[in-house]
Design goal:
This protein has 2 domains: 243 residues, Glutamine Phosphoribosylpyrophosphate, subunit 1, domain 1 (4-Layer Sandwich); 191 residues, Rossmann fold, CATH 3.40.50. The protein has 16 helices and 25 strands. Helices cover 24% and strands 24% of the residues. A hairpin with an 8-residue loop joins strand 2 and strand 3. The protein has 504 residues and is an alpha+beta fold. The strands form 7 sheets. A 7-stranded antiparallel beta sheet has the order 3-2-4-1-10-9-11. A 6-stranded antiparallel beta sheet has the order 5-6-7-8-12-13. Strands 17-20-21-22 form a 4-stranded parallel beta sheet, with helices on both faces. It is globular.
Length: 504
């Protein structure tokens, strides 16, 4: 489910007054949440609060689908729409959307446009009953799978690869003894990244791709079980963490058997590849998955920056929110005081009307303001989690200087972006990446910093405690061959040798 958004690169990165209007960060695709209460209690409100905790993973649409396993027809009741979680649902919705099993979803599109039709969960009615599905990730063979289905008569209602998964599960169910067998057989056809939560009439099923690109965890509260993208969502509803869904695992949750595991799709640990950007930026700092805490990973990143890119300064600050932990790590390692330089306007959300290019109001200044008392007369080290296009970094550097900082040294908690992602992270075309065909010194001049340092690629594995990672967006080396066409049939450069990360 991904749609890479293409913007023209401004000729002058330093820009005119008013600032560029882009959100110069990669975006995650979405978050999933499923719950089954064996005591028959309603789960819709808990799913709602779980999605609140996952809102950072997607702000374009939200949805919940629930069913009553004890009802006469086990009908699925669903509500989904464009907007944030609190915009989509009202108290009245929870009078009608009730049940003891359900799935929820928040979405940021990376295949398929941002429309209500593409909102999830997807609900299918087929010969074996009903199926509701929530998906995080991106398939690299979705176009091929979709064409096969279309040639055999399938009619699609969306443009997302999640519907391809749902169709294949429905078809496999006709020849499978159980719903979980159908999920496993469908997953064996998929290539790419996926974390799935599937609701059948009396089962909650989770599946994680063999590489483990996307996180999926299991939780428990009283006599209810949860599947969700991050542990922070478990804590929000006062549930306890049970364990991670393992890469290549299909788990089935029922009152009769509890959690049943199927590891048929598992691959050796050395071939697995978690998305490293979950640790750098996407996940909330209070999340843990695959045995590694996101907060501690970012602290390590900051420490490594201090070791590898030291500079004399008076203050270390982070760009909110994801740069704060790395800034603290830099301060711990360097001995330079950590401080607050930025005040974030927390009320700037999805519906923010961005200033026109001709306006003097910068969208960056509306979202962030500098605390002059903190930086005036000081040499400042500014830590950010990443630089993608570079279209806001120059603004933030200038804001610090305008507030009286005598020097601004920028350190980045990730290596330079040089390649696109094909597994669910919305990274633009190479030509739009500020690091593409530019040296670090050239980027420093573009953003106006006194010095610039990036996290070394070699540090990434240390940062996540040795967990196998995918760092293809930095190196051009991917755990599997990228697609030649996406779900919409648009072709990438066929002269690219992806295995070597360069033109063939």
């Amino acid at each position: 489910m991904s749609e890479h958004r293409i913007f023209e690169m401004p000729e002058d990165f330093s820009g005119a007054e008013g600032g560029f209007l882009y959100d110069d960060k990669p975006h995650e695709e979405c978050g999933v949440f499923g719950m089954y209460d064996f005591d028959g209690n309603d789960v819709a409100s808990s799913i709602y609060y779980g999605l609140f905790a996952l809102q950072h993973r997607g702000q374009e649409s939200a949805g919940i689908a629930v069913s009553d396993t004890n009802g006469p027809k086990r009908a699925v009741k669903a509500r989904k729409d464009m907007g944030l979680v609190n915009e989509v649902f009202s108290p009245d919705d929870f009078e009608t959307v009730r049940g003891d099993i359900g799935v929820g979803h928040v979405r940021y599109s990376t295949a398929g446009s941002s429309t209500r039709e593409n909102a999830q969960p997807l609900v299918l009615n087929y010969v074996k009953g009903t199926l509701a599905l929530a998906h995080n990730g991106n398939l690299i063979n979705a176009h091929e799978l979709r064409k096969d289905l279309e040639y055999t008569g399938a009619i699609f209602q969306t443009t997302i690869d999640s519907e391809v998964i749902a169709y294949h599960i429905a078809r496999e169910r006709l020849n499978s003894r159980t719903a979980e067998e159908a999920v496993r057989r469908a997953c064996q056809k998929l290539k790419g990244a996926y974390a799935l939560v599937v609701m059948s009439p009396r089962k909650l099923i989770g599946a994680r791709d063999p590489y483990g690109f996307k996180p999926l965890v299991i939780g428990k509260r009283d006599n209810a079980y949860i599947l969700t993208s991050e542990t922070c969502a478990l804590e929000t509803i006062d549930a306890e963490f049970v364990r991670d869904v393992l890469p290549g695992e299909v788990v089935t949750i029922t009152p009769e058997e509890g959690i049943v595991s199927d590891m048929t799709m598992a691959i050796p640990a050395e071939k697995q590849a978690r998305c490293v950007f979950e640790y750098i930026y996407f996940a909330r700092p209070d999340t843990r998955f695959d045995g590694v805490g996101v907060y501690e990973s970012r602290i390590r990143a900051g420490r490594f920056l201090a070791i590898d890119s030291p500079v004399e300064a008076d203050l270390v600050v982070g760009v909110p929110e994801s740069g704060n932990a790395a800034a603290m790590g830099y301060a711990m390692e360097s001995g330079i005081p950590y401080g607050t330089a930025f005040i974030k306007n927390t009320y700037v959300g999805r519906t923010f009307i961005k200033p026109k290019q001709s306006s003097r109001e910068s969208s960056v200044r509306v979202k962030l303001n500098v605390l002059r008392e903190s930086v005036e007369g000081k040499r400042v080290i500014m830590i950010d989690d990443s630089i993608v296009r570079g279209t806001t970094s120059d603004r933030i550097v200038r804001m610090l200087r305008d507030a009286g900082a005598t020097e601004v040294h920028v350190r980045v908690g990730a290596p330079p972006f040089l390649w696109q992602c094909y597994f669910g992270t919305d990274i633009p075309a190479r030509e739009q990446l500020v690091a593409y065909n530019r040296t670090v010194e050239e980027i420093r001049q573009i953003i106006g910093a006194d010095s610039l340092g990036y996290l070394r690629v070699e540090r990434l594995s240390e940062m996540v405690g040795g967990v196998p990672i995918c760092n293809g967006c930095f190196t051009g080396t991917y755990p599997m061959d990228p697609p030649k066409e996406d779900i919409r049939g648009e072709y990438d450069d066929r002269d690219t040798d992806f295995s070597r990360g360069e033109k063939a």
